[in-house]
Amino acid sequence: MKSKLLLAFGIACTILYAQDENEKSIPKSDFKGVPNVVEKRQSQLQQRQELIEIAPTGGGKITLPTPVGSSSSLRWLGANNSSSIAYRTGITGVGLTNPPTDTKLYVKANNLKVGIVSEVSHTQDYKFGILSAVNRPNTKAFSVLLKQGSNYVDKFAVMGDGRAFATEFEVRTTIFPDYVFDESYDLISIDNLKRFIDENHHLPNVPKAEKVISEGQKIGELQRMQFEKIEELTLYIIELNEKIKKLNKEVQELKKETK
Q: What is the model's pTM?
């Protein structure tokens, strides 16, 4: 019995900490970045005049060849600067000239607080702040690369099919199962535990498999439940060990009496 419980304890710990040997590492990117280049105002003006159009809300298209703005920035104005849509075809680079030809929009910012901001307000749930729509399961819908020297190393990726690759996850929780070791904790007896499992086919305080599969499970709550069961197993092992020591003592005393 003791060896079986020890084995169960080891399996529980392994489930929590071990990684699947077949699990792939973060797929590597071939991103190299671009050198720092100061964009010339003349080439910027020429490029925007050729490739930017304004589409009025009333329909049709008009070309707006002249940008307006201060000496430090350029902006394009539609009707009332709000009701028209500014767009351009081709490749766009912000903060650099000659952006990579394999990138539709490239923003390069140096010594700024933020590179890109998406600030939106919705009156309904499940709208979008940033949307990445892809057509392949192995497309990196979202990716984070860390520059190390002259190379960029993949650190985080969300794939088109919902898989996520990361070097580490840190989950914050407001409760952790050390309460199991409190004297007031009501530890179910092993006999009652067996009865519960026979009737319900899952552990106490753990949701059924069907519910987890259909609704999902929060990582922090899942870890809390796992540690709760690990600590309960620890108490069961201690309890059984005390019983085993007591039985061994009685056996030794019986042996002495029979000599």
A: 0.58
Q: What value does the mean pLDDT of the chain take? A: 76
Type of residue at 168: E
Supply angle C-alpha 219, 166, 135, rounded to 5: 95
Tokens for 31? Answer: 């991103």
| Per-residue model confidence (pLDDT) at position 20 | 42
| pLDDT for res 102 | 87
| Pairwise pLDDT comparison (242 vs 6), residue with the higher score | 242
Q: Are strands 92-94 and 105-107 parallel, antiparallel or unpaired?
A: parallel
Contact 63, 97 (CB under 8 A): no
* Among 91, 90, 94, residue whose Cα is nearest residue 108: 94
H or E element, residue 69:
none
Read off φ and ψ for residue 158, nearest 5 degrees. -115, 120
What percent helix, strand, coil does the chain show, rounded to 5?
35, 15, 50
Q: What ranges do the domains of the chain cover?
A: 38-109, 171-258
How many CA atoms lie within 13 Å of 223's alpha carbon, on the beta-carbon side?
12
